[in-house]
Amino acid sequence: MTSAPGESVARSLDALGVHPSKRWGQNFLTDPNVIRAIVEAVGSDAEEDLVEIGPGLGALTVPLAERARRVTAVEIDRRLVGRLAALESLGRENVQVVHGDILEFDFAAAAREAGRRVVVMGSIPYSITAPILQRLVEARASVRTAYLITQREVADKILASPGPAGTALGTLVRAYADVEILRRVPRGSFHPVPAVDSTLWKLAMRDEPRFTSPPEAFFGVVRAIYGARRKTLRNALQRSFGRDDVPAWLARADLEGGVRGETLGFDALDRLAAAAPGAPREEGAL
Question: Which of 27, 71, 278, 279 gives 20 to 30 Å between its CA and that of 5?
Fold first, then answer.
């Protein structure tokens, strides 16, 4: 009798003496149909130089390696690194298993070795979703596209940013990248089964960001707004910056202080940042 994929994964983990770590958010993909669908959703990008975040037992690594020019699989759990390296199905020259933290991974070196920007693939845990997304944005000169599996709520909030259903993190991501939802990933596709469904989504780095103001001014405004999202724009700015000239600032940006800041789109946020007190402005500009 054929065992369920989750049972097979559980046995493999038991044989390694590995109990899924909550600290590292370890939920292992098990459903072969979902795995095939994910690889197909990645499409021709699967043929590029790939960096995989948290390969685990290699469920995605193996089919990706069959198509990719090269796969660099970055795994933080030393107990799994040996298992990955020993897989006969990964016995090919285009796979490198690296023991390390993806937050410390040198994407620039990977891009130099590839001779082009790399493509990132991975199922990332909720506990470090924000740091990983920030790291990918920082590495955008070396990362062309990322295909990420995150909690469904995270993907939805990023797609909705900026906006009432969005977040400061989502605004950061969408300021530098185009976002596309590719498919839902049911919670039953993992072992252990998480409490929520996940989403596979694509993050494609833009050639130019969606704003022209200084980044420190732009993201200072974004943090102020989403850090006080129930307050009016005027009150949010005064709360964060404590300035007496907020009304004049808003007038320069041609914005009403009584609106909720979370309703502002990129153009309005950019105007607000460009009009910030002390921000460099060209003659005649706001």
Answer: 71
Note whether 221 and 191 are same-domain residues. no
Q: Which domain holds residue 130?
A: 5-205
Of the candidates 40, 271, 93, 268, the one whose C-alpha atom is nearest the C-alpha of residue 163 is 268
Q: Report yes or no on 284 lying in a domain.
A: no
Q: Are strands 190-191 and 28-29 parallel, antiparallel or unpaired?
A: antiparallel
> What does the pLDDT read at residue 265?
98
State if pTM tops 0.85: yes
Domain harbouring 119, CATH code? 3.40.50.150
Which pLDDT tens digit goes with each residue over 195-239?
A: 899 999 999 999 999 999 999 999 999 999 999 988 999 999 999
User: Which residue, among 118, 95, 94, has the nearest Cα to 106 in the 3D structure?
Assistant: 118
- Length of the chain (residues): 286
pLDDT at 82: 83
